[in-house]
């Protein structure tokens, strides 16, 4: 326990904590968060959903036309 209270040991611990925190700040300072990517993803998702809705509407319209043609053929 006596060696832990030695001023040299305390100084080394303090310096290592400070250096470690500075290194962590330097590393995280250049991080880019995905806000722009998320906005682009949401825009693309919305666009794909709209295209899918349009395709479904076209398909249902084609199915109705086919049904009408089949009814006309049978009558």
TrEMBL record:
Keywords: Membrane, Transmembrane, Transmembrane helix. Residues 55-75 are annotated as: Disordered. The chain crosses the membrane at residues 6-28. Pfam families: DUF2897. It comes from the Bacteria. InterPro entries: DUF2897. This is DUF2897 domain-containing protein. It comes from Photobacterium lutimaris.
């Amino acid at each position: 326990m006596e060696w832990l209270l030695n001023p040299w040991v305390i100084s080394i611990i303090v310096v290592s904590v400070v250096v470690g925190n500075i290194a962590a700040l330097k590393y995280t300072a250049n991080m880019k968060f995905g806000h722009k990517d998320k906005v682009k993803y949401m825009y693309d998702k919305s666009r794909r959903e709209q295209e899918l809705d349009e395709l479904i509407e076209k398909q249902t319209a084609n199915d109705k036309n086919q049904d009408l043609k089949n009814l006309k053929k049978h009558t």
